[in-house]
Design a protein that fits this description.
The chain has helices at about 70-75, 95, 100-105, 135-150, 165-180, 195-215, 230-235, 260-285, 300-315, and strands at about 35-40, 45-55, 60-65, 80-85, 110-115, 160-165, 185-190, 245-255, 290-295. By secondary structure, the protein is of the alpha/beta class. This is Esterase family protein.
Length: about 325
């Protein structure tokens, strides 16, 4: 799934800015299994880094969007981790292309936007034929503590939120449940919330897309047999109690895409999964905010603005 427009059959469920003329690699700030190989801190707000890490077989990029006044305020800020979707045109630059600077202008929050692979599914894959592609390790064990060590953040549960579009929305739901103490708010913008429904359609798609785009035949969940424990551990509808005491925000489209058949199929599956997930949250007495919006599998900036205001209200104040 990806942003407005079609999704090729080769792309993954999911929906990415590099800053020009990067400065020489920094000597300081390395650690947590990361080594800076490229960076640019010349922009007042958008800082760019590229890391070498044993978790990933190439050097993933990260954009860190700072709030207005960060350099002079001396304050600490909450952090939103924002994940892109899948597809060959999706990476850490996606949200800069989609206007994240304008969407966050004047908002007292740091936004971290990392690479997640064309079809990485925010996972450590069961098999890979191209070397390590351990995105979960990179995001949770390496990048998150690196951000807290190098920026003025609140390194605590009430200081972090996670959100994403499409494949990234799934990643947000997955991380929020699997790493309960890391994130006080979770948002999924057209991201799958149920990966076993309809004979495991989303799980099959995760395997097929990762095999085609990222892993040279390897898979996220294992093939021909899944790692069933892995699927259950990462399936939001099987982790309902893990969403207690969190802010939960869900958006899905309800109208067929008039142009792209594939996006229509994607969003139909997302919508059904969201309804299943919402029903289970309701049965468990877990509050959540949900929206079913016109059109299909697209990133809705007006919904992101609403989500961002809710994130800031839930997290510790700057």
């Amino acid at each position: 799934m990806k942003a407005a427009g079609g999704l090729s059959a080769a792309a993954a469920l999911g929906g990415a800015g590099v800053l020009a003329s990067a400065a020489p690699a920094a000597a300081a700030g390395d650690g947590f299994g990361l080594r800076i190989v490229d960076h640019n801190e010349s922009d007042p707000r958008m800082w760019y880094y590229r890391f070498a890490t044993d978790a990933i077989g190439w050097d993933p990029g990260v954009n860190v969007l700072l709030p207005d006044g960060y350099h002079t305020s001396g304050r600490r800020y909450p952090v939103l981790y924002l994940f892109h979707g899948g597809g060959v045109d999706q990476d850490f630059i996606t949200f800069d292309r989609w206007g994240i600077r304008q969407l966050t202008a004047g908002k007292p929050i740091i936004v971290v936007m990392p690479d997640g692979g064309h079809a990485g599914w925010y996972s450590n894959p069961v098999t890979s034929n191209v070397g390590p592609r351990n995105w979960e390790t990179f995001h949770i064990a390496q990048l998150l503590p690196w951000i807290d060590a190098n920026f003025r953040t609140y390194a605590e549960y009430n200081g972090r939120a996670v959100s994403g579009f499409s494949m990234g929305g799934f990643g947000a739901l997955k991380y929020a449940a699997k790493y309960y103490g890391h994130f006080a708010s979770v948002s999924s913008h057209s991201g799958p919330a149920s990966i076993r429904r309809d004979f495991g359609l989303v799980t099959h798609w995760a395997n097929a897309s990762s095999a085609a785009l990222d892993l040279a035949g390897g898979t996220v969940y294992g093939a021909p047999l899944w790692d069933e424990a892995r699927v259950s551990a990462e399936n939001p509808v099987e982790r309902i109690p893990s969403y207690r005491n969190k802010r939960v925000f869900l958006v899905a489209g309800v109208s067929p895409d008039p142009v792209n058949w594939f996006d229509t199929v994607n969003e139909t599956q997302v919508l059904a999964g969201h309804r299943e997930f919402r029903g289970l949250l309701g049965q468990a007495g877990i509050p959540h905010e949900w929206h079913e919006e016109p059109r299909g599998h697209i990133f809705r900036d007006y919904m992101f603005r609403r989500d961002l205001d809710g994130v800031i209200a839930r997290l510790r104040k700057a």
